[in-house]
Amino acid sequence: MDDKNLVLRLALAHAKGLGPMRARELLARLGSVEAVFAETEGALAKLGLDKAIASDLLSAANIEFAKKELHFLQANGVQVVFLGDKDYPFRLRECADAPVLFMYKGNCSLSAPKMLAVVGSRHATDQGKRFTTQLVCDLAKRHPDLVIVGGLAYGIDVTAHKAALEAGIPTLGVMATGLDRLYPVQHKKVASQMKDHGGLLTEHFRGDALVPGCFVSRNRIIAGLCDGVVVVESAADGGALTTADIANSYSREVFAVPGRPGDVYSEGCNDLIKQNKAALITSADDVDFQLGWDNIKVQTSESSTFPELNLPDLSEQELQIVSEMRRRGGEIESSELALFLKVSVAQLSSVLFTMEMRGLVHRLPGNRYAIGKK
Question: Residues 6 or more apart from 196 whose CB is under 8 A from it?
Answer without folding.
Answer: 107
